[in-house]
Amino acid sequence: MAYIFFLEEVLPLLLLGIFLKGSLFYFWTPDLPVHTDVALSRVSSTAQCDIDEELDTYPSSRPPAIVSVRYDRLRRVAGALQTRFGDVSGSVEKLFLLISWRDQCATAMCLLFCLIAGFGISLLTHASD
């Protein structure tokens, strides 16, 4: 609700927020890449129909009714995910990658840019008042 009254502060606050979040990641990032944990991937909790679908041959050896149900379910789920999360997840991922590079120098430069840009835009908007 406060953004309705202070629209000129949205971009500086966003840039300063990115700087703060990125500075937290800067000091607590691991030096080595993360390894996959099989227990966390929940491989053992898949349904039998999902395993059957993955191991099915091409072209399918199942009856057409089962294949039709599979494709209808796939279209419904994929359409919902694509329309709701496509653009948002891409933008958030790009933003996260900017503040969590393995190269500490590049991360520091990006965070410094966000800090300077946030303060600069904030000063420019207040100077025009």
Automatic annotation (TrEMBL):
User: Does the keyword Ligase feature in the UniProt annotation?
Assistant: no
Q: Which residue numbers delimit the Multiple C2 domain? A: 11-119
Q: What Pfam families is this protein classified in?
A: PRT_C
Query: Is the keyword Glycoprotein assigned to this protein?
Result: no
The transmembrane residues are: 12-29, 106-125
For this UniProt record, the keywords arranged alphabetically read as follows: Membrane, Repeat, Transmembrane, Transmembrane helix
What name is this protein filed under? Multiple C2 domain-containing protein
**Organism field:** Arabis nemorensis
